[in-house]
Design goal:
Elements: H1 29-43, E1 46-47, H2 48-55, H3 59-71, E2 75-81, E3 84-89, H4 91-103, E4 112-113, H5 114-123, H6 133-139, H7 147-159, E5 162-166, H8 173-179, E6 187-191, E7 193-196, E8 199-202, E9 225-229, E10 232-235, E11 247-248, E12 255-256, H9 259-262, E13 267-270, H10 280-286, H11 288-293, E14 295-299, E15 305-309, E16 313-318, H12 322-325, H13 328-333, E17 336-339, H14 345-359, H15 365-378, H16 387-402, H17 410-420
Parallel strand pairs: 4-7, 5-16, 5-17, 8-12, 10-13, 13-16
Antiparallel strand pairs: 1-3, 2-3, 6-9, 7-8, 11-12, 14-15
Helix pairs in contact: 1-3, 1-4, 2-3, 14-15, 16-17
Amino acid sequence: METATAASTSAPISNIPAPKTVESLGVRRNVLEELALKILYMSVELTLRELSHRMRVSLSVIQEIFGAMRKGLLVEIKGISEGTYLITPTSEGKARALELLSLNHYVGPAPVSLSDYVERVRSQSVRNFAVQPAEVERAFRHLVLNRQMMNQLGTALVSGTSIVLYGSTGTGKSSVAEAIPEVYHDRVWVPYAVEIDSQIITVFDPTVHRQVEQPATEEETDERWVLCRRPRVTVGGELTIDMLDLQFHPVSKFYVAPVQMKANNGALIIDDFGRQRMRPEELLNRWTVPLDRSVDFLTLVGGRKIDVPFDLFVIFATNLDPAKLADEAFLRRIHNKIKVDFMEREQFKEIFRRLCDQFGLAYESSVVDALVETLTRELKQPLRACYPLDIIQQIRWAAQYQGVAPRLDRDTIAQACRNYFLAPKA
């Protein structure tokens, strides 16, 4: 869990007060009672306070649920512990829990309703973040970009919609794409799960969502929601068309949200676009409406479709020609198209200088000038953003092999180029 920094200039995020009654949770009573019974069955026995913690709801809600389950002869009191009842399922309760587990195995925090989820996503839209030059400068400070590129990126981010970064291989598109989400330094609420017609969709994913410490407050917080940095999801060649819809587990019988739903209120990076396991037109056809209307349609088992917000900044990064990947109608829906080109000489040298500082090498401007001449004149290579790191790594590896300290000079650079580049054609 990260701690929210005091330096953040974003407006404080409003707290979500903890509901005190079952009715105020926004989820049907039977959904909560069934979840409580499954959790209790899996745990054998729990105190009301422990059940409250497992379900992420207030103790008063659990007491209300317990009263209903006890009246239905599904649970019984085993004793008192830590000032609350210690309860266990009755034989009838165990039989009912097994029936419920055959329908789905979800035993996590209580879900939020679909309507509450939609309202929350809309209220903390990525388009609400006020992108300013200072944030853009901070996010890209580790990269060497010219002023025109910075202005283009800032303008694209203000749109809060989508961008395609295109250009030749090795120009730094992936690095630029990975830096874009760093512009967002505020926080949003992400639910553990969403419920629709007794179907559970899990949303919070600790591998994607970076949880932050909640600010101190006098009132209890609705713990069904997790306070996180704006989401940042990256997919590459592993992306398939199935990953863009609800993932139903035939054994557990509940759903996992698709990548774009996990990325709501944040950014989704599609790296190496055009090289996925599905055809580009499949993805483009799937997202024509979401990109245009900010609404996505997901399909439940049985065929029912639900609409959820498509509120994310989508970043396509590709070294293929966008005009050959998508038709004009789709490219029109990607409002920002930025070419990431080769480096100018001074940019190339600045990357080299920074990397020398990083790896403890003495930087020699004249040596790098000679490298530039070798690349452009002898090897007929453009100045790609990836070359400085790749060449320095070659120098470091050679030094490690020879048991000497790495150094930057014409000889070590020449050896690095021989190892790294194909021999020029005669």
